[in-house]
Amino acid sequence: MVALLVGLRWRQLGHQLNRSPWFIVGLVFSGLVAVGLLTGLAFGLGALRVFSPELVGPILVVVGSVITAGWWIGSIVVSADDSLAADRFALLPVTARRLLPGLVLAGATTIGGIGTALALLLMLVGWSVAPAALLVALVLTPLALGTCVLGARVVSGLLAGWLARRRTRDFVLTFGVLLLASSGLLFNLLGSLVGRLGAPGDAFIRIAEVLAWTPVGAVYGVSSAVAAGDWGVGVGRLLVAILSAVVLWRIAERSLSRRLIDPIVSSGGGRVRSGGLIDRVLPATPTGAIAARTLRYRRRDPRHLVNLVMLFVFPLLMVAVVAMNSLNSGGWSFGPALILLPAINAFLLATVIQMDLAYDNNAVALHIVSGVSGVADRAGRLLGMAILVVPLLAILCVLACLVTGAWDLLPASIGATFGLTLAVAGASSVVGAVLPGRAPPPGANPLGRGSSGGAQSFLALIIVTPIALVLGGPAFGFAIASLWTAWLAWISLGCALVLGIAAVWAGVVIGGRTLDRRWARVLAEVSSEG
């Protein structure tokens, strides 16, 4: 059974590689990033071993605990995309006791599991400060990896019923994205807190002492105690690590057994209501109908809702980071350059507009069979986005001027923001017809595989960015110049309107004609499971 499940996992990966060349590109890119991170870890541990050998144990305990906690928390995100979920085996004559070892080993041999195993092996460079600690760490590496996988299965199993409800999934998604977006701010806060505990080395030692007696860090605390010569403490932490693994195994087995008997069925959304004001305001044309549908999706679909929330929150988070750094340095001031901050949303919109077709998944077929033109599709989607995004960006521009007190630069803020945004909208409308990207299907985990658009979206961003900088450059450049010569703010606003509207018109026409030629191929790409 173990070999069967591991082989099934790898055959599924091979199937994805055969069906989608973009999946291969994304996998290679992710691999290069992982190699870079592992290389940095290896050099960091080598330097730490040479220059601060007394801190190796505490730091490795903290790093290992973060890896384990990352597996446990990350299971909430990826559980809905688990191709070997327990519910899939409900109709087969297998028991949880036979199934669980194979599922654990299959989880450990995924790409993430292999990367974690390599990281644990690289940590041996640090543990080599003491031969006994090195030997203990090598022996306990399988237990550390098993704790990661078992804990992930336990967390996803315990929360599976809760996450099956639509409102709960939407809440977790929104909270998770906001938490991820505010990670820089949280790290700043954590750094300040650690600094107040005393010297960084002393802070790490105190934190490691606590984590080494918890399920997430006990397995690493054993080697740390051995390196320090505290064999009695090491034995105590070993008992905690083994007991944690046994408890996790028993909980995972019971959860799996329950789901084999009573599979969890995800619930959908609520009742669909009429459009009301939307249908009365927008024109009764294909463009108006697509715009109305876009507005409904932005309100009901959490994948779209999070994008809108991020457009408003991301600049505020950047302001918070700047404010915190100013406070840490003993000052508090915002320069007039802050009026340019809302313009960063243009590049967040690039991926949103480019992936709009991918979010529709196989519902794109409705446009094909109903004879909707590509121009109507491009114009309708941009119109629906504009109704929501234009007021949002205007509010951010006003808030930026309110914070800085530079009301004479409001035209510059609006010019820079809308100049880049309109340029991005036009360029993304064309690029999205050629590279629609890949998104999780409706009802799937919005943070799961394909949530970032895959390699196509990365390539699309590389193409859109220089085009947007060329078309929106005059408006942004005059906005920067207005920081010293205020009347240039109106030139920036004029450039934004003229060049931006021209970019949107060209994007709708060129992107629409491109879409008319590629409807069938776009449908195949956005609805593919590979």
Structural class based on helices, strands and sheet pairing: mainly alpha
- Which term fits the overall shape? globular
Strand content: under 5%
Query: How many helical elements?
Result: 22
Number of strands: 0
The end-to-end span amounts to: 26 Å
Helix content: over 70%
The overall pLDDT, averaged over residues, is 80
SSE order, as H and E?
Answer: HHHHHHHHHHHHHHHHHHHHHH
- Determine Rg (CA atoms, Å): 26 Å
Largest sheet: none
Low-confidence runs of at least 5 consecutive residues: none
Quaternary organisation: single chain
Task: Give the arrangement of secondary structure elements.
Elements: H1 2-19, H2 21-51, H3 56-78, H4 96-108, H5 111-122, H6 124-127, H7 131-163, H8 166-181, H9 183-196, H10 200-211, H11 218-227, H12 231-261, H13 277-281, H14 286-300, H15 302-328, H16 345-354, H17 356-360, H18 364-369, H19 374-404, H20 410-434, H21 454-481, H22 488-526
Helix pairs in contact: 1-2, 1-4, 2-5, 3-7, 3-10, 3-11, 4-7, 5-7, 7-11, 7-12, 8-15, 9-15, 11-12, 14-15, 14-19, 15-16, 15-19, 16-20, 16-21, 19-20, 19-22, 20-21, 20-22, 21-22
